[in-house]
Target: ABC-2 type transport system ATP-binding protein
Amino acid sequence: MLVRLDPMTAPAIRIAGLHKHYGDLHAVDGLDLEIPRGEVFALLGPNGAGKSTTVEILEGFRKRTSGEVEVLGLDPQRAPKSWRTRVGVMLQTTSSATALTARESVSYAASLYPDPRDVDETLEAVGLTEKANAKAATLSGGQQRRLDVALAIVGRPELVFLDEPTTGFDPEARRHFWTLIEAMRGDGTTIVLTTHYLDEADRLADRIGIIANGRLVALDTPVGLRRRAAAARISWVEDGEERVEETGAPTALLRELLARHPGEIEGLQVVHPSLEEVYLQLIDDASHEARAPEEATS
Ligand SMILES: Nc1ncnc2c1ncn2[C@@H]1O[C@H](COP(=O)(O)OP(=O)(O)OP(=O)(O)O)[C@@H](O)[C@H]1O
Model:
C-alpha cells in the first residue's frame, strides 16, 4: 500500500505490487519501485521483459491489472489534463512521421504546454537544425527518433519517459543525445529511459533497474551492479605462455606478480567485468529460476 504523500513533494514515481496480465501472460508480475525526483533511471531487460508495459502504465496509456502507481504524486489513470503537461513521453514507435515539417511539429507540440522550451533551441538540442524545414515523413529513421525526443522534451516536462530513445541513432547522434540528457539532469528533470544499450545506461543512469519476466531482478547504481561480479580478470605472458586468472582480490595478485617479475610484465592486462557481463549473468539466473518450477512439475 502506498502511504499518502504531498503530490508536490512526493517521489517522481511510486509503484507498489504492480501486475499486468494479458490473458495467462503475467507481463508485469509484482513490481515495487520508487524513483526520486531528479534521478535518471534506466530500465533494462530482454525483449518481452515488461519494460514498455510498465512505462505505458506509468504514462497513463495502459491500464494495470492490479497494484498501485503514482507519477508526480497522482495516479496516471485518474490524473487531470494538467498532469499530462508535466510529463514528457516518447513512445517506442515513432509518432512523428507526419506531413508537417520538423519545426512545425515541435511548434505545435510547444503550443500545448504552459511554459515550453524555445522551438529552435529544442531542434538544436536534438541535432535537427539543418532539417527544421524538412517534412517529418522525409526524415531518416534516426532523425525521426530525434524528432520524437524533441516532442517529448519541448514542454519542459518535470518527468520524461524515453522508450528506447536512441534506437537507430548513429554513434555521433547518441553522444549528442547523452549530452542532452546530462543537461536535462542538470535542470532537475527526472528521466526514465528504457534501453538495450548497456553502455548508455552505464553512462547516463543514476540507478538501473533490471527487469526479467515482469519482475525486478536487480536495482542498483551502475557501479554497484558492476561490483556484483567480484572477479577481475588478470592476464599476462609468462615463459612464452599466456596466463589468465580470475580473482576477487586483483591488487593482491598484482603485488605477487610484481614481486615475482621485477622487470616489465609482458602483456599485463587487468580487466574488470563490464555491465554487460553482469547483466547477462543476472538475466541468465532469472531465466533459470523462471524455468525451475516448470522443470520440477514436468
Ligand atoms: N497488448 C498486448 N497483448 C498481449 N500481450 C502483450 C501486449 N503487449 C505486450 N504483450 C506481451 O507482454 C510481454 C511484455 O511486453 P513489453 O512490450 O512490455 O516488453 P519489453 O520489455 O518492452 O520488450 P522489448 O524490449 O522487446 O521492447 C511480451 O511477452 C509481450 O508479447
Notes: The longest helix spans residues 275-297. The chain has a mean pLDDT of 90. The longest strand covers residues 25-35. The CA atoms of residues 44 and 177 lie 18 Å apart.
